[in-house]
Write a structure and sequence with these properties.
The chain is α/β, with parallel strands linked by helices. It has two domains: about 300 residues, ABC transporter type 1, transmembrane domain (ABC transporter transmembrane region fold, Up-down Bundle), CATH 1.20.1560.10; about 220 residues, Rossmann fold. The chain has 15 helices and twelve strands. A six-stranded mixed β-sheet has the order 6-9-10-3-11-12, with helices on both faces. Strands 2-1-4-5 form a four-stranded antiparallel β-sheet, covered by helices on one side. A hairpin with a 2-residue loop joins strand 11 and strand 12. Helix 2 runs parallel beside helix 5. It binds adenosine-5'-triphosphate. The site of adenosine-5'-triphosphate has 11 residues, from helix 10. It comes from Massilia violaceinigra.
Length: about 550
């Protein structure tokens, strides 16, 4: 039912077309049963019923095709939109929120849940038409004899109630199966990302598989088998009950109700005709139930992914004609710790950065350098205080426009094959120039707006990330430990040539670095200690 209301919201027209075509298919199916029943009981009118039979066959074929194809378009359109909607929303959700939601949780929804949902949609056309066939069959039986139909309805109601009760346990197992998927995805992520560590230590690898992955996979298997076994039992008993029903109609009810042979045979043929749709439904039920759980997860994520920022033409809010000036005013950011005492607090911090400055952000591990960078880039929103650009505070409504002033190569950067920037010969030439300047011309080519390969060493991949950053040509650059993976020669090139070149082009540059040998290259060094700016001792005051 959830799936149908979801489809209704996607395209009423297609659903209406499918309903009408499906209704014609269902009714022609029911009429076929009536014609067969009449034909058997009227041998003198064979031509008449024969023509009607073949005409109805054709009508059923055409209408069924129309219904199935329109439902196919409807369901696949719905899946396509769902994938794009979720991706767009994810893109608009703050990085901090995404980190809180957890990568594995996002992945399981975007891949597994959407797939489960797609699988269920494959059943929809058949089930939809079957539902109409069943309705047509019931209508025909009511026309044949409504007291018989009432008895059948009473019998079916008891059966449905029993089915509902019997389904509870397998349904609970399937709900647990879905929860277990989150756990499994988390383990698979660790397995892939930690493959090197696990292979280096065979015992550790075995322990991970047998002690961490296997219990999760076993729990999944156990729940899934129990759930599906329950459904298999319920479905087979349900089908058997249907046959029993036919037996009761044929051999028990005639003892109480005097019915013409034509009515009895009509009922029997109709019920036999309905067995296939009922079996189809029983087979599809577990998949539909799993899709229900997946849909609930997708909906939950959809709500949690509320874009934190209203995208608008907010670029106008900043005065881009004036020299760029970024200011932090009492900015604070906290990461909650597991038990409260493990939390980390950056700030309150005041800082002013002027256009063209080359600033090094330094400090020990965990002192807050990357967190400060995230706040400066507008990827984290401060919990208190404000970030301002050219005197205008960055708020939810203009944070996206604010971020467009920056280009960054993070310590844990992601290298896209595609080149950023507007396509064209100029971008191609620029990219070639930078690839050459970074000494990668023998390794990488630029083809169709993308790097020919990204399968390179870490240091080389970082150089390509720098090429991509150069192509973005933003006013402010951030490099988080870029030089950490470079050889001494390129480290020197970076600090003594590349950074001064960028500065000469008027760029503002923020460099997170541990390379104290090159700190003298900076206009200013900002040192962090436990989330606070380190204020250097006033040697002049001491001297006095
Ligand atoms: N995702 C997170 N969730 C919770 N706490 C975090 C998270 N990331 C960082 N922290 C905490 O914030 C502190 C500062 O982290 P940050 O990454 O800013 O340090 P850093 O100075 O860049 O360190 P490094 O030199 O090791 O890269 C850390 O001590 C850690 O306790």
């Amino acid at each position: 039912m959830n799936l149908l209301s979801y489809l209704y919201r996607q395209s009423r027209q297609l659903l209406l077309l499918a309903t009408i075509a499906g209704a014609i298919a269902g009714l022609s199916g029911a009429a076929l049963v009536a014609v067969i029943n009449k034909g058997i009981n009227a041998p003198d009118r064979l031509w008449e019923f024969g023509l009607a039979f073949f005409g109805l066959c054709l009508l059923m074929l055409v209408s069924k095709l129309v219904a199935e194809i329109s439902l196919l378009h409807l369901t696949q359109g719905a899946i396509y939109r769902l994938r794009l909607d979720l991706s767009t929303k994810l893109l608009a959700t703050s990085v901090h929120r995404q980190q809180t939601l957890g990568k594995h949780r996002l992945l399981v929804i975007l891949t597994d849940d959407v797939n489960t949902f797609t699988n269920a949609f494959e059943f929809i056309p058949v089930l939809f038409i079957n539902a109409i066939v069943v309705s047509g069959g019931l209508a025909y039986m009511a026309w044949l004899s409504w007291p018989m139909l009432l008895m059948l309805a009473a019998f079916l109601s008891v059966g449905l109630l029993g089915f509902h009760m019997a389904e509870r346990r397998p349904l609970a197992h399937l709900a647990k199966v879905r929860e277990q998927k989150d756990v499994l995805y988390q383990h698979f992520r660790s397995l892939i990302e930690g493959a090197r560590e696990l292979q280096l230590n065979t015992e550790r690898g075995r322990d991970f598989v047998s002690g961490v992955l296997a219990p999760g996979a076993a729990e999944f298997r156990q729940r899934f088998v129990r759930g599906m076994r329950g459904y298999a039992i319920v479905a087979n008993i349900g089908t058997l009950l249907f046959y029993l029903n036919i037996g009761v109609l044929l051999f028990v009810i005639p003892h109480w109700l005097r019915l013409p042979a034509e009515t009895l045979s009509g009922f029997t043929i109709t019920l036999l005709f309905l067995i296939r749709p009922i079996i189809d439904l029983m087979t599809a039920l577990p998949t539909l139930r799993q899709a229900g759980f997946s849909l609930a997860k997708i909906r939950q994520l959809d709500q949690e992914l509320v874009p934190s920022e209203a995208a608008g033409d907010a670029a106008r809010a900043f005065d881009t004609s004036a020299p760029l000036s970024i200011e932090l005013k009492g900015v604070c950011h906290r990461y909650p710790g597991e038990s409260g005492d493990g939390s980390f607090m950056l700030g309150p911090m005041d800082l002013r950065i002027a256009q063209g400055e080359l600033i090094f952000i330094v400090g020990g591990n965990g002192s807050g350098k990357t967190t400060l960078a995230m706040l400066l880039l507008g990827l984290y929103a401060p919990e208190a205080g404000a970030v301002a650009l050219n005197g205008i505070d960055v708020t939810d409504s203009n944070r996206e426009a604010y971020r467009q002033h920056f280009s960054a190569v993070f310590a844990d950067f992601h290298l896209f094959e595609q080149l950023p920037g507007i396509a064209g010969a100029a971008r191609h030439q620029h990219a070639l120039h930078y690839v050459k300047a970074l000494g990668l011309q023998h390794k990488v080519k630029i083809e169709d707006g993308r790097f020919s390969t990204t399968n390179l060493s870490t240091g080389q991949r970082k150089r390509l990330a720098l090429v991509a950053a150069y192509l973005e040509d933003r006013p402010v650059y951030l490099f988080d430990e870029w030089a950490a993976d470079q050889d001494p020669v390129f480290k020197r090139v970076f600090y003594t040539e590349l950074l001064p070149e960028l500065k000469a082009r008027g760029k503002t540059i923020l460099v997170i670095s541990h390379d104290d040998a090159y700190f003298s290259a900076a206009d200013r060094v900002i040192k962090l200690e436990d989330g606070h700016l380190h204020v250097p001792e006033r040697r002049d005051a001491c001297a006095a």
